[in-house]
């Protein structure tokens, strides 16, 4: 792998290789872009098949965070850590403290958080070595489980999608199909039902389905039928890559708006949705509620402030749809453009001399 060629392709700033013999730490911290502020992104622990796979994953995920933060209006850049190892066998206090010291050595250029394979307890261990970590135990004044805020953001994004397509954000009587009734999907179901929507639900866990049927009067569908359900809005809240060559021709929803990460199997599937006239809410924009919430910790967590920032996903989605409509481009491409434009505009703000006081840091 030509590492600098890869870094040059998307203009990465920095890659840090972290090794610690005593704890067995082998980790990669990738910082993509800090134009808007410090790079925030979770710490993933995974049994990568090779070192190259780990580096490629860190780079890919870090860049994704740049776009996500920029589109969400946050003053944060994009970064990510990956630890090479098995989260079931290879975790130890020493490993996370060793990583914490590396993160601290970056002086706040990178802030970590929970991700696939890591937990709040792991973040607490990192916190022993550095303040540059979010998502620690609520007893330390952190923001706690982000799922409720993610669900709120998706709900507001669904309202915005309805406003754009139907001219009203009133969801009363709208049929919404939810795939996955986990931490986010179940809360989303509650909000949608509260707004008068009729729910169709599916989960591989029958207990969750039964709960939703009893609590929200939802209609249960077998998991294999939910994506092709006759409905106004489909909310994928389970797995990635659900929008692909096989599923897109079968979709019967007019709007796709859910929390799942990486819903498009490939970029071109966003183009296919556009061609079919289906309004797709780009996943990294509509599901940013959790990130917005955790990022509020950087200002000293305030739940009401975090909530009102999450609510702004409504306006962000409407602006994004407007841009897509005016330019005639698919919504997932409009999202990338919107994020890049914000970064480019702020990058070009004139470097006026600021006098001889403490330098102003953009973002925070
Ligand atoms: P979760 O694990 O709590 O819930 C996922 C649910 O999907 C589970 O109930 C599971 O049984 C169900 N499921 C799995 N396979 C299924 C299938 N084939 N058909 C139907 N249901 C199926 O996860 P979550 O935290 O609710 O997150 C849901 C999605 O949203 C994930 O893709 C996640 O990456 C994404 N996301 C979550 C957050 C957050 O704050 N939790 C933030 C951003 C994105």
From TrEMBL:
InterPro entries with a match to the protein in the record: Aminoacid_DH-like_N_sf, Glu/Leu/Phe/Val/Trp_DH, Glu/Leu/Phe/Val/Trp_DH_C, Glu/Leu/Phe/Val/Trp_DH_dimer, Glu/Leu/Phe/Val_DH_AS, Glu/Phe/Leu/Val/Trp_DH_bac/arc, NAD(P)-bd_dom_sf
Keywords assigned by UniProt, alphabetized: NAD, Nucleotide-binding, Oxidoreductase
Annotated ranges, domain Glutamate/phenylalanine/leucine/valine/L-tryptophan dehydrogenase C-terminal: 144-351
PROSITE patterns: GLFV_DEHYDROGENASE
Entry annotation: catalytic residues: 80 (proton donor/acceptor)
GO molecular function: nucleotide binding; oxidoreductase activity, acting on the CH-NH2 group of donors, NAD or NADP as acceptor
Alphabetical list of CDD domains matching this protein: NAD_bind_Leu_Phe_Val_DH
Binding site for NAD(+): 180-185
Coiled-coil ranges (or none): none
Gene Ontology biological process terms, A to Z: amino acid metabolic process
Keyword check for Nucleotide-binding: yes
Keyword Cell membrane assigned: no
UniProt family annotation: Belongs to the Glu/Leu/Phe/Val dehydrogenases family.
Name of protein: Glu/Leu/Phe/Val dehydrogenase dimerisation region
Organism whose genome encodes this protein: Alicyclobacillus acidocaldarius subsp. acidocaldarius (strain ATCC 27009 / DSM 446 / BCRC 14685 / JCM 5260 / KCTC 1825 / NBRC 15652 / NCIMB 11725 / NRRL B-14509 / 104-IA) (Bacillus acidocaldarius)
